[in-house]
Amino acid sequence: MRNTRDKLLEGFADIGYNASKRMWFYTFTVHMAVTESGYILNHIVTPASVHDLQAC
């Protein structure tokens, strides 16, 4: 699997498996604080397994 050799996002991305689609995924999550007009105030990049409430 190529995902295990990738070092670019090591520490940020998680490897998981979607059984219904029979696909592996390699992903991360970006949490953002945004104003009503769409300006980004703050952002945090976390592995996909981190819950939204834990990222704060």
Task: Give an overview of the whole structure.
With 56 residues, the chain is mainly beta. The model has no long low-confidence stretch (mean pLDDT 79). It is elongated. Helix content is 7%, strand content 45%. The protein has a three-stranded antiparallel β-sheet with strand order 1-2-3, with no helix packed on it. The protein has one helix and three strands. The chain has one domain (2-55). The longest helix is centred in the C-terminal third of the chain and has 4 residues, at 52-55. It has one helix at residues 52-55, and strands spanning 14-18, 23-34, 40-47.
Strand-helix topology:
Blueprint: E1 14-18, E2 23-34, E3 40-47, H1 52-55
Antiparallel strand pairs: 1-2, 2-3
Compute the gyration radius: what is it?
A: 14 Å
Specify the overall morphology: elongated
* Tally of individual helices: 1
> pLDDT under 50 segments (min length 5)?
none
The helix content, as a percent range, equals under 10%
**What's the end-to-end separation, in Å?**
32 Å
Count the E strands: 3
Helix- and strand-based class? mainly beta
| Topology as a string of helices (H) and strands (E) | EEEH
Largest sheet: spatial strand order: 1-2-3
Q: Average pLDDT value?
A: 79
Query: Which percent band covers the strand fraction?
Result: 35-45%
What summary fits the major beta sheet? Answer: 3 strands, antiparallel
Number of domains: 1
